[in-house]
Amino acid sequence: MTDIVIVDASKTPIEVSFTVAQGLQGASGYVPPLVFNFTTNDWILNAGQYELDVIHSFNIKYPRVNIKDDADNELFIDYIPITNNLIRLYLPLEPECRFNGKVIVGI
Asked: In this structure, are residues 58 and 2 in contact, taking their beta carbons and an 8 Å threshold?
């Protein structure tokens, strides 16, 4: 099983709910994407901005990342930094724009 852990700035895991979404056919068979729900309280204030880290173990350079708000609207972000198995979302401190939603990570 592939694990994804959302952590705060100190790398402490954040408790999230988990569901499996429709998956894709990967090179070694069916690999379902993983879905993690988060709330506005899960965004961590760091150096004048909010951050939300998603750590996964797919071990691929370019995972498919979808972000949706709590009304299931897909959000489009210009740039999502991905380093190894870490996906980090950023939001500015002002204006307040943290949101409840979900991150969907797949191959």
From this structure: yes
